[in-house]
Amino acid sequence: MSIALSVRGGDPGRIATPLIAVALPTGGAFPRALTALDAAYGGVISKAVKNGDFKGAKDESLLLVGHGRGPARVLLLGLGDGSDAYASVMRAATLAGRKGNALGVRRMAFWAERLAGDAVEAAAFGLSRGSWDFTDYKTQPAAKDRPKPLTEAVVISSDVRGSRGAFVAGVAIGEGQRLTRRLQQLPGNVCTPEYLARTARDIAKRHRLRAQVFGRRDLKRMKMESFLAVAAGTPQDPKLIVLEYRGGRRGDAPVALVGKGLCFDSGGISIKPAQGMEMMKYDMSGAAGVLGAIEAIARMKLRVNVVGLIGSTTNMPSGTSMNPGDVVTASNGKTIEILNTDAEGRLVLADVLAYSARFKPAAIIDAATLTGACVIALGNSATGVMTNDERLQDEVLAAARRGGEPGWPLPMWDDYREMIKGDIADIKNIGGRGAGTITAALFLREFVPTGTPWVHLDIAGTAYSESDLTVIPKGPTGVPVRTFVEFVRGRAR
After folding, report:
1. Is the pLDDT at 446 greater than 80, yes or no?
2. Whether 55 is catalytic
3. What's this model's pTM, rounded to 2 decimal places?
4. Is 461 helix (H, G, I), strand (E, B) or coil?
5. What percent of the chain has pLDDT over 70?
6. What is the arithmetic mean of pLDDT over 175-196?
7. Which residues have C-beta within 8 Å of that of residue 230, sequence separation ≥ 6?
8. What is residue 292's predicted lDDT score, i.e. its pLDDT?
9. What's the CA gap between 130 and 150, in Å, rounded?
10. For the domain 191-492, what is the CATH code?
11. pLDDT averaged over the chain?
12. Residue 471 contacts residue 98 (beta carbons within 8 Å)
């Protein structure tokens, strides 16, 4: 279910709403703009701040219930020290959306002092992100007992007219990430390669984009043996999905966003342990991120050309599966020795990256839940970032910081390249236990069009969470939508 967002001005104490979230920083003076609201609550709000019952710390919250006119409830939320205003407001608004959803109020408002410009974008996005929920497969109670989801939220701004564009952008990014998280959360028997293809076509139809979908017969014609090796064990038709957004000048080189779309990964013949294998429905998170980013970019009408490229299939063990020791030839002519069938994402992306050459992209950014080694190296707080162009890497890292999806660079030294040098083919698809994230990226580099700046994002540790993150529940995080969008927006300005 989507959320209807709006922006307005006015005194927060005189807005009739079931809930108003009020975000306050640590150590700040009590805002004069809250005088009427404080009076309506008998001075309780200012007393809570003065007495230290509410300190404004990050993620701190205090719920107050009132009476009479104005907001029926006040939810005080901490902004922390406010050193990063955008991030602080985004986090507080996300928590507001999540708590509003849990309270079952249907409608709410969000206020922070001097909320204007980019802070309005942060608030709109945060409310959208926090209110997202996935209940598609849960049996609902009787209507009278059913919780009321948050369906409307108002951002109260000190400069409505000057913040209109920022608000629209926040809504757009929120909708893009909601699309991504829904795709991530769907079970593998629903979110198939065909489902991703239909989603791409829906986005294209909604925003008048160009979508192309290629199946198994097409991939054979294109000589994508590496991609087809992964799809050999599944009866589902693999899909190469191409989605073109043409917001820039005609003839301008596009930014290519590439996503790994393994709708389920059993590991193939090199089968994974049973424990935790259900989480492999998230192995299409890179693809979901590409689709969500293009949804947001199209809504924002950014003046830049973008092409989204997705390789989607499932990796299953069967009598027709690829085997360890097989050798295949990718579409760019390089031969690959397959030593481990669970290193399948790089085999799919090899042909997708090679295919991107026909668009002559200005830059390529790929995202993939590629290696468990990245989780060991960086945990769940940072995305692994690798590149063939340090200037582009800096640009992507800055975009990731702006979007609240921090990344960390890993080296791509030539010494590591020796680890994937093939014994009977050009390269092999694994390089041993050490530096697994780096050698996977070096494998991908072999298929990047010559001379094209490229960045690889390993989102294995950041695409989903196996625990509650306070502002985001267990499950999909929506990474890397914000990174993609912020990068493209930076190119459009």
Report:
1. yes
2. no
3. 0.97
4. coil
5. 99
6. 98
7. 238, 262, 268, 313, 315, 322, 344, 347, 348
8. 98
9. 10
10. 3.40.630.10
11. 96
12. yes
- Give yes or no for a contact between 31 and 22, defined as CB atoms under 8 angstroms apart: no
In three-state secondary structure terms, 436 is helix
Per annotation, catalytic residue among 55, 272, 334, 417: 272
Give 346's strand partners: none
How far apart are alpha carbons 321 and 343 in whole angstroms?
Answer: 14
Q: What does each C-alpha distance from 310 to 204, 211, 345, 353 come to in angstroms?
A: 14, 11, 11, 10
Ordered by start, the domain boundaries in the chain are: 4-172, 191-492
Q: Does 4-172 match 191-492 in CATH topology? A: no
Q: Give the number of C-alpha atoms closer than 13 A to the C-alpha of residue 420, restricted to the C-beta side.
A: 28
Give the DSSP H or E segment for 184: helix 164-185
How many other C-beta atoms can be found within 10 angstroms of the C-beta atom of residue 432?
11
SS (H, E, C) 84-118: CHHHHHHHHHHHHHHHHHHHCCCEEEEEECCCCCH
Provide the residue type at 330 as one letter: A
224 neighbors 356 (Cβ within 8 angstroms): no
Across the chain, which distance is largest between two alpha carbons, in Å? 80
Q: For the purposes of burial, counting CB atoms within 10 Å of the CB of 349, is it exposed (0-12), middle (13-18) or buried (19 or more)?
A: buried
| Average of per-residue pLDDT across 192-220 | 98
Residue 493 has pLDDT above 70, yes or no: no
Helix (H, G, I), strand (E, B) or coil at 301: coil
- Output the pLDDT for position 70: 86
Q: Strand 464-465 and strand 475-476: pairing?
A: antiparallel
CA dihedral of 198, 263, 335, 306, whole degrees rounded to 10: 40
- Residue 181's H or E segment, with its range, is helix 164-185
Question: Quick check: 263 and 281 in contact, CB under 8 A?
Answer: yes
Exposed/middle/buried for 134, CB within 10 Å: 0-12, 13-18, 19+?
middle
Cα–Cα distance list, 247 to 273, 307, 399, 403, 491 (Å):
45, 11, 20, 21, 12
pLDDT at position 143 over 70: yes
The SS3 call for residue 376 is: helix
Whether residue 272 lies in the annotated active site: yes
Rounded distance between C-alpha atoms, residue 96 and residue 304, angstroms:
33
Choose, from 346, 402, 482, 489, the residue flagged as catalytic.
346
The CATH homologous superfamily to which domain 4-172 belongs is Leucine Aminopeptidase, subunit E, domain 1 (3.40.220.10)
Which residues pair with residue 63 across a beta bridge?
75
